[in-house]
Amino acid sequence: MNELFSGTVMQSTGSWYEVRTSEGEIVRCRLRGQFRIKGIKTTNPVVVGDHVKFIIENDGCGYITVLEPRKNYIDRKSTNLSKITHIIAANIDQAFLVVTLKEPRTSLGFIDRFLVAAEGFRIPTCLVFNKLDIYTEDEIAEIAELERIYEKIGYTTLRTSVVNGEGIEMLKQRMAGKVSLFSGHSGVGKSALINTIEPALDLKVGRISDVHNKGMHTTTFASMFQVGEGYIIDTPGVKEFGLIQYKPEEIRDYFPEIRQYNNMCRFSNCTHTHEPGCAVQQALEDGEIAPHRYENYLNILHDNDMNLAEWQLR
């Protein structure tokens, strides 16, 4: 009988998986037969960050036979199969969503959809406003307003620049000893940030398309790297972040500023859209809830997959 080994998936290319054992050895593995996760319809049954057990056959190839229970994961709709989900990564301690105001511009819809996905497992998320060296005074003021909005509802924020080093040490401190997921649009500078944190990784850095002023994909597959006592999960840049179908009461819970009013409305099943005596609508009117956040709540509630590229930071 083959010996059973334990490890963590460090990279997935769809058919091959690089698994790191507790001794630090990397073993290339495949899935055994029709490997499936019970109850989860997903394009990728095993993902970066998963803890697995595997055997090694006589040919030297590893075969994953067991997927350990996940403590959490972040997923989104598969781009081509809207009813199928694509899991980005699993067993995450925290997420860093890298945001830029230009080259390329990050949409507010994208930010809020990512935050909803993270809230599903209460994954702490930090908004990293990157490329601080290229912004005008007005754009810096815009960042300050966004920081105010998101910090007020419980998210942390950070300003960074790989050009002048702003925020890099603080980013390193926040990552220490944790499994950190990096996500964002293509071209926002995820790989450049990671290279600055750990130059030995030497990740490929892309350029911005002159035609569309959008980021060009450089990271093809999600990968995990050890940095000090912690780990970084670098993910491919995504243009849109389509959410899986949530129940209305789940969506209410995944917006912290709305969640705090859930028990204050006249009706216990209030959707916060049209009902009389709605505490959320009153809070919106009083300026306690940011209009764009409420608008994105409605879009997600009504499963309105708007063109996120057009819903820009203003």
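^ that was protein a. below is b, sequence first then the tokens
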Amino acid sequence: MIFTSFALALAQLPDARFRKVLWTGIGLTIALLVLIYAAVLWLIDIFASGDVTIPFVGEVTWLGSLLSWGSLGLMLFLSIFLMIPVASAITSLFLDDVAHAVEDKHYPTLPPIPRTPFWDGLRDTVNFLGVLVGANIAAIVLYVLFAPAALFIFWGLNGYLLGREYFQLAAMRREGREAAIALRKQHSGRIWMAGCLMAVPLSIPLVNLIIPILGAATFVHIYHRLRD
């Protein structure tokens, strides 16, 4: 079911509505990462703008530049982790567009439903982003304690969170919040597995830019298959 749903989502990628969400999501994601990087450079400029005197060496005027170049490498590394909450949260704003495109093509007999109000979608997105960031910060302790298994913990944790939220967002459009939660709990193992399969490529730079839209479409298919 999971791989069939993903194949259907991948085959629909040339759809104009898919491409619109894809490029919008990529643009907003890159813009947000650039803003985060700019904020890091601004903080470095504040704390390292003056000359530093080192005993037996004298004044060091290049410390700010050194830290700035180091921060670039740090941000490239952190983007692997930041991309999961950032790209996924941004794309979830456009889930309605993806879901409508999927249902128009593959489930044309379904009755039409109104779009999710913008502010409701924004609220769910902010909550989703907060949960993802908070959970990953809390999991740093586990990453340190179980370093050899850190990557698998990362995939398992984010797979659970991604599956939980993406499935609920897809199901709530037609089921309502309570029914969507009940359906998710009924099929929690399969949804977690689908989320893990989404989390793995999300940790690969550049590839992770395209995965959120494919994940959103995949979970729309999974929802309809599980409901049936």
